[in-house]
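Lecture notes, unit on protein representations.

Consider one protein chain, 905 amino acids long.
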Amino acid sequence: MKHFILIILVILCSFPFAHSQILKGKITNQSGEPILYATVYIQELKQGTTSNTNGDYEIRLPAGRYTVIYQSLGYQPVYVNITLSEGTLSKNVILTMQYYEIPEVRISASGEDPAYNIMRKAIGMAPYYLNNVSYYKAEVYLKGNLVINKIPRLLQKSMKFETSANETSVSAGSKPKSEEKLLKAGDSFLMESINEIEFTAPDKYFQRVISYNSTFPAQGNEISPMEFIQASFYQPVLADMAISPMAPNAFSHYNFKYLGASRQRDFTINKIQVIPKRKSQQLFEGTIYIIEDLWCLQSVDLINENLFGKIKVQQLYIPVLEDIWMPVSHKFEINIGIIGFKADVGYASSVRYTEVRPNLSLHKPASLSADILNKTGTDRKASDTIVSKPKQQINRILEKDKLSNRDMAKLARLMEKESSKTVKDSAGKSLEIKDNTTHIVEKDANKKDSIYWAGIRPIPLSDIELRSLKISDSLKIATNLKARKTDTIPLTRNKEKGKFIKTAGEIIFGHSWSDTTGFSFSHGGFINLKSLSFNSVDGFSYGLNFSISKSWKKKSTLSFMPDMRWTFGREQLMWGINTNYSFNTIKHRQLFIRAGTKSRDINNEGGINQFMNSLTSLLLKKNYLKLYESKYLSFGYSSEIINGLTLQLSTNYEDRRILHNTTNFSLLESSKVYSENIPVNRYLLSGSNEINALRDQRHLDFLTGISFTPFQKYRIHKGIKIPANSDWPTFELTWKHGINEFSEIPQGLRRYDMFRFEVSRNSTIGAFSNFKWRIRAAGFLDNRDLTFYDFFHINSQPFPVLLNNFEDAFMIPSFYSLSTPEFYVEAHLKYTTPYLLLKLLPVMSNTLMRENISLSYLGTRFQPDYTEIGYSISEILFIGELGIYAGFDNTKYKSVGVRAALNFH
């Protein structure tokens, strides 16, 4: 949670370089109480700071005349003109309460709350304000503090943190030491940093950490804030955490209440209460402030409650350039409460925008241009003189006094379309998604002394924060003295014992080792769930697996992965060797060779979980897994031909042998007999075509597979190409030419050709929602001489409890029952969303679970069309899914089933 907090909150805070003139003072309300984290903004310099927890503020400025804006949520802003010369100017400010009134013109005859019409326009304009800046540069100061309030007794001895020694205070030739300290209630920590942040549209960010000072635990100093620096309430989802009140589907999740309006100089500010329709960790509640006619944010005051506690976010927006309102003040308060651990975290920021450039390629609606011209006397020129049809539609919608939900959705779509054009223009035609976040820490950034910080810190430290710094300095001195004393002390017997226990654990339970030359070795351990299994054919079996690999600087890798397993029922050693040589990490070229002798599942396209089959065999005496012996040799090659187009070639030889049950052992059902090692399928029943029956045979096949994703986007990380998303589906075509030899049939060579074509896509269609689908069709040119091994084995998973969630599977039909040699068409559709049915109930709404609706179809010759409809809840305790499924033959109800899945991946 500590990492989560630091990542979310180290977002946008800045500070200019020191000047000799100082403006300082205290900000209070009418009762004389200090106002915490009030904003002090210098209009001419686009620079600001905030008051501390005592209401004190301090900012260094060059000499000159300035307009200073003192502002805080809930208070009337105060504008003060000052002249700053040499020395220090003290200015105490009293802020009065801000009152909001409901004008008569806002009262609707229809009875609808006026907030909805305001929000429709604001939501429709959100894509414009998300993209109306092409570049900015800011100097940022961030200050954060952490106070530990309570630690449960059971955790007190285990709550430890590392204190890092200052490198400059460590003796020459030695590394800085760290010491573990117990965390206790009442401990407080401080973190502050001075940064330079640069943004270039559409998504390029550069952060330079000039200096930082931290008493936070050592692990917290390794956190970079750049992952969440793009967070904006104009985005549908804020930092993958919660749905924004400005999202296109906000009306599905929030109610809004108009609390009045207030005049602030040239602008009318509307106060809107945000009320979640249900209690949820993915929603905010609180207040947002919308500027009349511009329909942009003036400030936000929102709270999100989740598993870890309560997060309060306050942001204040100020016009830094004509109609460009940007956040200049950020305040975060987090009340952490989890398993009895309680702590308070607070962050405040000071921002100075040194340069801001508008996005001139983004058309500004005519109504906004007129409003800005009337209010300020200035206007940003549009980039074109000819108004296109979409822009005319935008203007017509904004000119309406009242907007419907349909108008809002249309406006949002049009603005999103116009904004996306500018993004594509700036990004060019390249499909590469570049890592546009750069994080650089200046050399010696953490070695600044107290004199430096006293001269450049824009937000004065509170008494608690000063005490935290003094304690941290004392700990560093003590740690350095202890480090000098212990540098030459050899390892103690206890440390040697601990090292032995650690090594033994790695050998028993598995571990990976690697060195700097690119060599690595790993093994699965002697004890794990995959080591031991049971079925009626092999009996008990126990196995080990290893992996040895070597990588070279030219990005090529050779991997050698042997595994071996002894079957106690058959008294036979099964083994396998998988060798891969990967080269050209951009084209993902790979050669592989595989060989071995194994017991294989006859269903080679879906399969039965061996652990679950072991449980049902030992406890219920139901062995579902049907096996055959395979002595195999395979080799193949795969490569990307062009971006998005991949070719796979392989050859496989198998000597297939029928296997029979070798044991009748079971823990509970000793009187029963295991079913034969023959799948239950209509093509294997007595009286069926004998050629389809399982038999000993030798098999050879040649496979060619092509996969193509048009306009496939990708990333390149450390020289390795990583496929990303695409607006197009993926098309796959597979051809396999097979040859079977039957020893009991004269001239027993039988040939066949199999073709399979499928199309699939997984797309995000809303906040925390996605839709994935797959359509597959396949058939044989001549299926008269096929054995059951080579059938199409449609994936079915009838176990009530599944380990890992199987994609594109039918949940009700029994194992092997859907296998067929006939032409078939298969389709799977699944829609996932946070709120659909059960999640709307109060007892369920405040969870991170999601709901799913699925539809599966299978059509084959000589069998009824089978359809399966399902509803499930996923992410139960983050790993579980529980669903109910109903099956239909030719639209006639057939059966129903309940499935629970545990996904450990």
